[in-house]
Amino acid sequence: MNYQIIVLVKQVPDTKAISSKAMNPDGTLNRSALPAIFNPEDLHALEAGLQLRERYGGIVTVITMGPPSAAEVLRESLYRGADEVILLTDRHFAGSDTLATSYILSRAISKTGHYDIILCGRQAIDGNTAQVGPQVAEKLGLPQITSVEEIVQIDSGKISAWKGVERGKELLEVPLPAVLTVVDTASKPRPPSAKKIMRFKKAKAPGEATPEEAQALKDRGLLIREWNAEQIGADLSRCGVQGSPTKVQKIKKVVLKAKDIKQYAATDESLAQLLQELIQEHTFD
Amino acid sequence: MKTDGEVWVYIQRQGQEIAEASLEIFSKGKDLAKQLAVPVAAVVLGDEVQPFAETMSRYGAHKVYLLQAPQLEQYTTLPQARAITRLVKQYQPAIFLLAATPQGRDLAPRLASALGVGLTADCTDLRIGTYVDPKTKQKHANLLLQIRPAWGGNLIATIVNPETRPQMATVREGIMRLPEQQNSGTAEIITIQSGVSSEDLTPRIIGQRITERRVNLKQAKIIVSGGAGVGTKEKFHLIHQLAQVLGAEVGATRAAIDAGFIDHDHQVGQTGTTVRPKLYIACGISGTIQHLAGMEESGKILAINTDAEAPIFSVAHYGIVGDLHEVIPALMRLYKTQRP
Question: Is the ipTM of this complex over 0.90?
Answer without folding.
Answer: no
